[in-house]
Amino acid sequence: MNISLIGGIRVAVSIILFLIIFFVVVISHEFGHFIIAKKNGIRVVEFFIGMGPSLFSFQKGDTKYSLKLFPIGGACMFEGEDGLAEEKGEMSEKAFPNAPVWARFATIFAGPLFNFLIAYLMALILVSVCGITTPEIQAVNEGSKAKEAGLRPGDVITRMNEKSIHLGGEVTLISQLNTKGESLTVTYRRDGQENTVVIDPVYDEAAQRYYMGIVAGGYLKCNVPQTFQYAFYTMKFYVETTFQSLKMLVTGQLSKDDVSGPVGLVKVVDEVYDSAKAYGVIEVLLNMINISLLLSVNLGIMNLLPLPALDGGRLVFLLVEAVRGKPIPPDKEGMVHLAGMVALMLLMVLVFFNDITKFF
Predict the structure, then answer these.
(1) Most exposed among 10, 122, 190, 192, judged by the fewest C-beta atoms under 10 Å?
(2) In whole angstroms, what is the distance from residue 327 CA to residue 85 CA?
(3) pLDDT in tens, 102-158
(4) Could you report the per-residue pLDDT of 310-320, keeping only the tens digit for each?
(5) What sign for the dihedral angle of Cα 42, 44, 45, 51?
(6) Which of 26, 19, 32, 21 lies closest to 48, judged by CA?
């Protein structure tokens, strides 16, 4: 088969996989808003996936359902949420502002919540099929600080710097984030007894990072109770990783090249697909679920940030309303969210062009 044709097929498959991931992650978020709004008697004017002009749409009941051109987000539009209809006196009893404040809070919060719920479901699938990597030490390097501290293969790390450890990935993450070579307090279990040691990592010039001198990562095939337990730990690990990434981005430890939008994500999906396809369809599927899990957690956390135009920003206004007993004037709240939306769209454009440059 022609090499260019094979490459074209691979790209097409990667785009399709990305779109499936996009729809799963975004629909779960918007469905959270949608179902809780319906339960609270709030009218959903439009439920749409994507942005820009509509590719197709249909009306069912009070709601218009649309699929839009650009795979960038989505929205669940409630009657009267922009405040304009309220000023004109055109709102029905099902309008968003007419619902109790805690019903509106639950409706907005449900979007990120459903992202975490779908992420947990994905973690359940991954853990049940693949098992988990445990924090059991597999090897200790000769002459390393870990060896000097008395660590041995078979020891199971239970805490690092007062943080409980459940997965091998947590050991790796803490070690990688120790960019200043600070001492690490490590608690480990050996023969049913727990011991604590302090390890001073050594800098490796070639790798440009600090190492304790251990290889951690045993394997556990989980039974049913363990599957539910470690699925939670897995999702928690992705949440912590996302927060650490945000912290590093804000502090300048990550650059703009470490941030990806839809185009960059297609590239990531393509690379993962290319690596996994040799092992079969199941391996590809599991890797796509893993990407979906990470993106779902990312979307949930990003939307909870207390920034204008995001769910977190709207939740702040609702909390203020609950405390003061009356809402912020719709025109003032609308101006704040509009400014946030403009800033968000500008950021998305910048990320888009940054993604494009990664291909060249």
Answers:
(1) 192
(2) 16
(3) 999 999 999 999 999 999 999 999 999 999 999 999 999 998 999 999 999 999 999
(4) 899 999 999 99
(5) positive
(6) 26
